[in-house]
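Hi support team,

I submitted a single chain yesterday and got back a structure, but I'm not sure I'm reading the token output correctly. Could someone confirm the output below corresponds to the sequence I sent? I've pasted both exactly as they appear in my results page.

Thanks,
R.
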Amino acid sequence: MKIKYLAASLILILFLTLSAGCRLLPSTGTSPPPSPTPAIAENITQRNSELTIPISENPSPPLPSIADVVTRVKPSVVAINTEVTTVDVFNRPFTQEGAGSGWIIRADGYIVTNNHVIEGAKNVSVTLDDGRTFPVDVKTIATDALADLAIFRIDATDLPALDVGDSTKLRIGDWVVAIGNSLGRGTRATVGIVSQLRVSLQVDQGQTLYNLLETSAAINPGNSGGPLVNMAGQVIGITSAKISSIGVEATGYAISSQEAMPIIQQLINTGYATRPWLGVGLYTVDQFVVQRYDLAVDEGVLILNVAVGSPADKAGLKAGDVIAKFEGQEITEVDKLIRAIHTARVGQEVKITFWRGSTQNTVTAILAESPPPPK
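Hi R., thanks for writing in. Yes, this is the structure output for that exact sequence:
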């Protein structure tokens, strides 16, 4: 009897265990999906093969050789050292030394740099890559402050001149190299890409530089005036630490060759640059001048003075007038008017709308060639 009870108990325990195991996997109330037919399976396999991401077997192109570019360009880059007389806080004169860069544009000794590198210098000297040093007669330096460019000539021949490239062919992402007398410690090279084209920046009151190249190549004090070159070793820009100082970290700027070369050519040919000229002194209208001159308008460009015999004088414009439009273009600040004048042509007849008191008038003026700077 005990054996029967024991067997019955074992059977009951086994039944309960199996029943509990079934409850661990509750039924969903649906039958398991049937296996796909061979035709459906083939379609699924085909779709999965279509979703496969292709991997290119072509290797990435090699990076350009920066060393080759530097080897080609470095002999044409010069270090410029200057001495400027200034005064301290007690109005006592002292000599301040400066350093910049330049590059040889012609084999007969012509060198290009920035105007601010040599501006106000009483002594300027140039050191070539081969170690030779030449003094510069500051009276022979030709400058254009508006474009921040300068050229001069040293007494040397058969110099390694650089080729000038076409900056209009640059694309964002193109490799460029900046070479110059960085920090006044000798010629150095930095590499980067073109990060933006046709940039405009105000660098001083009344001075805005246009058509600049923005680059990730590091540009430091001492680089000013040095070349920014493409991978062919051609100058496509003139670097400027002065411009870079108003930017942000890892951003440098250069005057494009497209903007610089016409001015450089004029400086070489005549010693100064000419532009279309209206012959007025200007100031952007703000609340101060509105109250100071009791203006009837609060926007435009105030004429401070008119040069005798200038196009503005001949057109009847007077000090106190407020220019509102130039050739149909709304004028709200001095830089905008200056740019509009400079992009016109010498001899072009232009229409100018202005306010005199509370009356709006329109006149025409024939732009003339800007006079040479005083000697």
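A quick pointer for reading it: Residues 2-23 form the longest helix (22 residues). Let us know if anything else looks off.

Best,
Support desk
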